[in-house]
Design a protein that fits this description.
CATH architecture of the largest domain: 3-Layer(aba) Sandwich
Number of domains: 2
Structural class: alpha/beta
Number of strands: 16
Oligomer: single chain
Helix content: 10-25%
Order of helices and strands: HEEEEHEEEEHEEEEEEEE
Largest sheet: 7 strands, mixed
CATH topology of the largest domain: Rossmann fold
CATH class of the largest domain: Alpha Beta
Strand content: 25-35%
Low-confidence stretches: 9-22, 29-44
Number of helices: 3
CATH superfamily of the largest domain: ABC-type transport auxiliary lipoprotein component
């Protein structure tokens, strides 16, 4: 009797073990099925390309006042880096808050540099045309160049390096008026909060603005020295600028005897030189449209009310006095 009970208990124990084992197997299969439906994050070696801010903000002293529109025909810069036409501009070896990847990208490096140069020159008062294979027929000067270096590495200290060569020619005869290389090399510590896409974009945009701004200043010097007949202001004094290596420079202007100021006797007009930030604002005098800023007008001496209009900004109204034989300068900053 006792032996029969023992055999029955042993048989029941075996059944319980089988049921428990089957339950564990079913749980395991269910877990595997759930895991297979989970979308695991994928990690790429590259982050999305940056988009730089190419806005140009020249000072009043960097804006030219020409007697007529001065036209620059700009050829797209050549990508002359060690790896031309590559979107990669650097490595990411330290964490960036809102970016994944190990490579920093920028689409069309040469086109970006060309755009920065064009914006600087246009904001300074030149009429610019980006040519599509041959210079514009009405060009006074032609511009070409090459991007020698363009990199930004994100690490313990971010390191930027930009080198751009530019050549300015007289469109009438093709002679070189100025040629040089403008370089910007710098590094920084991103700070305790670390880097973000915005902070990286701002840092690289500022470095490119320094290069394009220094190039603009050198080109303006060469243009005004080569064609003083086109401008109201005299050529600026030649000076050495850090980061600018001059390859070809215009000859030093011949010294001129001290001129006697012209007599204003019988003169009834004066000049009004207008500049705005941003530029290309519409200028109205007595509701008559006169052109886009920067703009220099020759007007009868008197008091005038100006209306300056720019899409997206508040209209600016200014009252100015034009004195005979003198130039009145007005610089205005628009507000949203």
């Amino acid at each position: 009797m006792n032996s029969n009970k023992g055999r029955e208990l042993h048989r029941l124990r075996g059944k319980l073990i089988q049921v428990a084992s089957l339950g564990l197997v079913m749980l395991g299969l269910a877990a595997c099925s759930s895991l297979s439906s989970i979308s695991m994050p994928s990690f790429s070696l590259t982050a999305a390309p940056l988009k730089l801010d190419l806005t140009a903000n020249p000072t009043a002293g960097q804006i030219v006042h020409s007697k007529r529109p001065v036209v620059l025909s700009i050829a797209k810069y050549i990508d002359a880096r060690a790896t031309p036409n590559s979107e990669k501009i650097g490595d990411i070896s330290s964490a960036v808050n809102d970016m994944l990847g190990t490579e920093l990208l920028l689409q069309d490096v040469a086109g970006t540099v060309t755009g920065a140069m064009e914006n600087q020159l246009r904001a300074s008062g030149y009429q610019t045309i980006v040519d599509t294979g041959k210079p514009a027929a009405n060009a006074d000067f032609t511009l070409s160049g090459a991007v020698k270096e363009f990199s930004l590495d994100i690490a313990g200290r971010d390191a930027v390096a930009i080198a751009v060569e530019t050549t300015l020619r007289d469109a009438r005869n093709g002679s070189v008026l100025w040629s040089g290389v403008v370089t910007e090399r710098a590094d920084r510590f991103a700070g305790v909060t670390g880097n973000s896409r915005n902070s990286i974009t701002r840092y690289l945009s500022a470095a490119l603005a320094k290069v394009s701004g220094k190039t603009r200043d050198a080109l303006s010097e060469g243009i005004v020295q080569a064609r003083p007949d086109l401008f109201y202001q005299a050529a600026p004094a030649r000076q050495s600028t850090p980061g600018v290596t001059v390859l070809v420079a215009p000859p030093e202007p011949a010294p001129t005897p001290q001129a006697v100021p012209p007599s204003t006797h019988g003169m009834t007009t004066g000049r009004l030189a207008l500049a705005t930030m941003p530029s290309r604002a519409k200028v109205y005098l007595a509701d008559v449209y006169y052109g886009l800023t920067p703009l220099t007008l020759e007007l009868e001496a008197g008091i005038y009310t100006l209306n300056l209009k720019l899409d997206g900004f508040k209209t600016v109204t200014e009252k100015v006095s034009v004195r005979k034989g003198e130039t009145t300068e007005l610089e205005t900053r628009f507000e949203k």
